[in-house]
Amino acid sequence: MRAAGASPESLAAYRRRLVAEIEARSIELFPENWHAFSVFLRMGDQWRIAAGFGGIHYLGLDYAALPPVLEECRRLQHRQPMDRLMPQLRTLVRAARAVLNDD
What we know:
With 103 residues, this protein is an alpha+beta fold. The chain contains four helices and two strands; from the N terminus they run ααββαα. It has a domain at 31-100. Helix 2 crosses helix 3 and helix 2 packs across helix 4 (82-100).
């Protein structure tokens, strides 16, 4: 934008607007949920769906794909016991499913 001749004031205003948009879309994530959130993001292409005349309905994650994703996550960060991870992951899936299916 600077190369196109934008003034420093307009650049600063644009930067403030971008920061405000990012902050409005931000969520707070507690440290104890970071591992589950990382796993959830890595499982993002593993959704089970049902398609029909009403469109696509997201059912949940394909947990059969979880072992290789967990292996990757555990190499990159701390380990979390499955009895803690799975409830957190299911909570994320329920919330995402509600958004994806417009429930």
